[in-house]
Amino acid sequence: MTDVKGAAVAAQEKPAERSEPSDGRRVGAVGRPPERSEPRGTGRRPRGSSRVRNAVLWDALSTVLDRIAPEGPSDVVDVGGGTGGFAVPLAELGHRVTVVDANPDALAALERRAAEAGVTVKAVQGDAVDLLDLLGPDAADLVLCHSVLEYVDDPAAAVRALTATLRPGGSASVLVAGQVAAALHRAVAGHFDDARHVLTDPDGRWGDHDRVPRRFTRATLSDLVAASGLTVGELHGVRIFADLVPDGLIDAETTGRGHGGEAGAADALMALESVAAVHPILRELATQLHLLAHK
Ligand SMILES: C[S@@+](CC[C@H](N)C(=O)[O-])C[C@H]1O[C@@H](n2cnc3c(N)ncnc32)[C@H](O)[C@@H]1O
């Protein structure tokens, strides 16, 4: 399938104004993400580490969805949405979700994931900077741009394009790799020269073998988003402590806060991450910086 600009539409079109998730959950719960990442029906919760790492992000998304779509589903565009780690759960909640991604293999995996979950996600192959041409203006109540600005050739152009795609009153959810955290993680691993390099390199890279082309600080991310004309909102730190402790510790279900072990370590760490996410100093140390911005 091909749209007017020649981009392949890799997945099925959205259903005709479907208003209820197929499992019968009410669309009124549009702001509450499913607490799992597995295909529908497996009955399994995500492992503790995955749950902890995503909790702050989903909380922030829930809040913004409650604000922009209090009564029902919204139009969500996930630019660089990849295999649908966010798109599919949002579709499960009843939102109309479009993923625009440059990688056709990722879109094929997205199709499979959506099919397994029993939901429809529209997939469009294309570049983030062409978002306005691909989808038109005022196409989205919410645009997700998660872990993408690190990789695009022109981050400013990508943010301008997503801004143009947003409806007035809509919001953008931008997630990027944090520069300060990269220095911390390299130093903790004993790579002190790398850590120094991260802090002095304008792109926040630790060296030539660093696979991430650029990282951001709170200031560089906020400036980038503000330059597109969006109003910069809350900044959350995502994974402040979670990446500094072993997965095995997070997955333990019987250790944690309190002497009686009444809460699992994952729950205790999630509670800690939730408080630290908005701490004015700690949030800047997070592996990922999550910025909400509004049009
Ligand atoms: C690290 S993955 C993130 C996937 C997803 N957003 C998530 O958070 O799970 C980066 C994604 O951005 C896509 N991407 C990279 N450069 C792009 C560009 N210029 N335009 C559109 N998509 C791009 C890649 O194909 C990939 O799917």
Automatic annotation (TrEMBL):
> Does the UniProt entry include the keyword Methyltransferase?
yes
A GO biological-process term: methylation
Q: What's one Pfam family the UniProt record gives for this protein?
A: Methyltransf_11
Matching entries from InterPro entries are given as:
Methyltransf_11, SAM-dependent_MTases_sf
Superkingdom classification of source: Bacteria
* Annotated ranges, domain Methyltransferase type: 77-172
What spans are recorded as compositionally biased (Basic and acidic residues)? 14-26
Question: What are the record keywords, sorted?
Answer: Methyltransferase, Transferase
> GO molecular function of the protein, one example?
S-adenosylmethionine-dependent methyltransferase activity
**Region Disordered, annotated ranges:** 1-51
* Keyword Transferase appears in the UniProt entry: yes
Endpoints of the signal sequence = none
Q: Which PANTHER family match?
A: TRANS-ACONITATE 2-METHYLTRANSFERASE-RELATED
Q: What is this protein called?
A: Methyltransferase domain-containing protein
User: From which organism does this entry originate?
Assistant: Actinomadura rudentiformis
Lineage of the native species? Bacteria, Bacillati, Actinomycetota, Actinomycetes, Streptosporangiales
